[in-house]
Design a protein that fits this description.
4-stranded antiparallel beta sheet, 8 strands, single chain, 173 residues, alpha+beta, 29% helix, 4-stranded mixed beta sheet
């Protein structure tokens, strides 16, 4: 079940947010006067405590493109439930041709994920997880599919509330 739009996280202080560059692409536009270069940057931003966002920035300079991507990422922050350094349950995410599978792992496993997925999971603060990218390897789609999968996760408090039972009854049966 997808999260609602009101689950976006508002953040005013950017001091505790870390950023990671996922991909940087040089784009060439050929004009009558010659070639014009610009850059497109995909960035993942997170606090390492379950808050994550992604952004895309385009500009003529690399640093300006990254700055725009970070600003865009801060606008799309979502909260992810993390329990004991891992995710509460298995999740699948899909965005266009990008498909991902994320599974919880035992303590000490580490982040078993590739490229763009690794960046998203590390910025979210997940320490032990098994992840697989099954569709497109396009970093844009993989990042978005990973965030879709993480957004679909439900924490124990949410599950207990939806079932109408207490947390104690949820864990003890």
């Amino acid at each position: 079940m997808a999260r609602q739009a009101n689950d976006k996280v508002k953040t005013s202080e950017t001091s505790d947010l870390k950023e990671k560059l996922v991909s940087l692409n040089r784009v060439t536009k050929v004009t009558k006067g010659g070639r014009t270069f610009s850059f497109a940057a995909v960035v993942v931003v997170g606090d390492g405590k379950g808050t994550i966002g992604h952004g895309l920035g385009k500009a003529r300079e690399v640093s300006e493109a990254i700055a725009k991507a970070v600003k865009d990422a801060e606008k799309s922050m979502v909260k992810v439930p993390i329990i004991n350094g891992t995710i509460p349950h298995e999740a699948r995410g899909k965005y266009d041709a990008g498909r991902v599978l994320i599974k919880p792992a035992a303590h000490g496993t580490g982040v078993i994920a590739g490229g763009a997925m690794r960046a998203v999971l590390e910025m979210a603060g997940v320490q032990d997880v098994l992840a697989k990218s099954q569709g497109s390897s396009n970093p844009h789609n993989v990042v978005k599919a990973t965030i879709v999968a993480l957004s679909s996760l439900r924490g124990p408090v949410e599950v207990a509330r939806q079932r109408g039972i207490s947390l104690e009854k949820l864990f003890n049966g």
